[in-house]
Amino acid sequence: GENVEQHPSTLSVQEGDSAVIKCTYSDSASNYFPWYKQELGKRPQLIIDIRSNVGEKKDQRIAVTLNKTAKHFSLHITETQPEDSAVYFCAASELSGVNKFYFGSGTKLNVKP
Amino acid sequence: NAGVTQTPKFRVLKTGQSMTLLCAQDMNHEYMYWYRQDPGMGLRLIHYSVGEGTTAKGEVPDGYNVSRLKKQNFLLGLESAAPSQTSVYFCASSYFPSGRDREQYFGPGTRLTVT
Question: For residue B62, which of B46, B76, B40 has the smallest C-alpha distance?
């Protein structure tokens, strides 16, 4: 089955700096990669996703890049704000399958004011 | 729309007791999932369903059973709770196959403690 590894497990940045979270996957059949944000005590919520037919996708201050050859993808947050503090999860899935997500272990991002 | 809801929000069980967690969605989604979330281990899939009357095992199915008698509901059962089942349980749903949306929508979670 698919194995998703996520690094780092914790990340602390100063407000205004950029943050980068990296994930690798093992199954070359995976072609859909969502990122979820989970605030303390809340449910995970999708913030951005990318399909394997594109290499990069942006949405305001967040972007995701995908390298299919190396089987890794990354989340980039620019101009971080205190409200970006949360746990971020990457996941991998196969679009033609039963939509099972294989999640990474999570990154706790702390943005210091 | 309420989206995905879960009942109960919190529960404390003694070892050996049984309970059922209820997940309901009003988005007419075909697929539903149960995950458990433990510190440092992300979200792990317990069981899932691709339609009414169907269920399948995920990554960590031992000690759990599920049923999906109605499209909008997905039940997770613990027949004989163990301390290792102390966790936060999340239900999720998604729509397939004709739509492009692949997002899984999560419920608010159930915090279960087994003593």
Answer: B46
**φ, ψ of residue B17 in degrees (nearest 5):** -75, 165
Q: State how far the Cα of B10 lies from the Cα of B112, in Å rounded to an integer.
A: 6
Per-residue pLDDT tens digits for B12-42 = 999 999 999 999 999 999 999 999 999 888 8
Query: Residue A93, exposed/middle/buried by CB under 10 A (0-12, 13-18, 19+)?
Result: buried
Joined tokens for residue B106: 């999560």
Q: Do A100 and B45 touch (CB under 8 A)?
A: yes
Give residues with Cβ within 8 angstroms of B48, minimum separation 6.
A98, A100, B31, B32, B33, B34, B55, B56, B58
Q: Please give the residue of chain B at the shortest CA–CA distance from A47.
A: B103
Q: What is the mean pLDDT of each run of 10 residues along chain B (115 residues)?
A: 93 97 94 94 93 95 97 96 97 79 93 97
E strand or H helix that includes residue B83: none
- Name the residue among B48, B106, B108 with its Cβ closest to that of A100: B48
- Please tell me if residue A94 touches chain B, with a CB cutoff of 8 Å: no
pLDDT mean across residues, chain B: 94
